[in-house]
Design a protein that fits this description.
The chain is built from 1 helix and 17 strands. With 226 residues, the chain is an all-beta fold. A hairpin with a 4-residue loop joins β11 and β12.
């Protein structure tokens, strides 16, 4: 449940609202977006977003800082234990659009698991884009093609070049919400429904195993915006 405090958005989240008075919240969060001109002079364009999450039950904290402008973005994400006061998560990533029109390059590095990852996305035309991603841990190139059918529908097949695993995604948009359907052949179907309600967003996720539909999983989340 978020609240606006001056220029900050602060709030808390409970995994089980029925235990609201019996246990600590699962997450406390603090977020604010600043114009880059506040730090780098009046000529600096873009924004810097500071986002912090605290897990009081497991005594952990996560800090995320993202800088965005028209040419790309840079992100630092760090996490650690409040008990030991040690950082055990650190990831740096960036993206750029300045090399060629329609081309977006992205790369990043996770310090603790030594994972290096990157991607290249290219807008083939106004309605179709292709993206290739790879990391040095799985060494599995992933290729996806996104095609916009019209203002309300988009399809995106994704292929693993290592395992030849393929999934198909269909995104349907309407005023106030969208439904994302992903089919993993011989495995499952995932439905993610997002609905913009009056005081926040509802998110419903349904996972249907193809082998046994009686094991279908449903989860509903509510994001309050007061």
């Amino acid at each position: 449940m978020p609240f606006d405090v001056k220029d900050w958005k602060v709030g808390f989240h409970y995994n089980n609202i029925l235990k609201l008075t019996k246990e600590l919240p699962s997450k406390l969060f603090f977020k604010r977006t600043f114009p880059l001109s506040d730090f780098a002079g009046s000529d600096a364009a873009g924004t810097a977003t500071f986002n912090s999450n605290i897990d009081p039950n497991n005594r952990r904290i996560n800090l995320d800082v993202t800088v965005n402008n028209d040419e790309g973005s840079f992100n630092v994400n760090a996490g650690g234990s409040l008990s030991s006061k040690e950082v055990d998560e650190l990831e740096l990533s960036f993206s750029t659009k300045s090399i060629k029109e329609g081309l977006t390059l992205a790369s990043g590095f996770n310090y603790f698991n030594k994972k290096l990852f990157g991607s290249a996305a290219y807008d083939v035309c106004d309605t179709t884009s292709v993206k290739v991603s790879l990391d040095n841990v799985d060494m599995d190139p992933i290729v996806s093609v996104a095609h916009k059918i019209d203002d309300h529908n988009m399809i995106k097949p994704t292929l693993s070049l290592k395992s030849y695993g393929l999934n198909y995604q269909w995104l349907r948009k309407w005023n106030g919400g969208n439904l994302e359907t992903t089919w993993y052949p011989n495995d499952k179907v995932e439905l993610n429904w997002s609905d913009d309600a009056k005081d926040g967003k509802w998110n419903t996720k349904v996972v249907i195993p193809q082998s046994d539909s009686s094991r279908t999983q449903v989860s509903v989340k509510r994001n309050w915006e007061l």
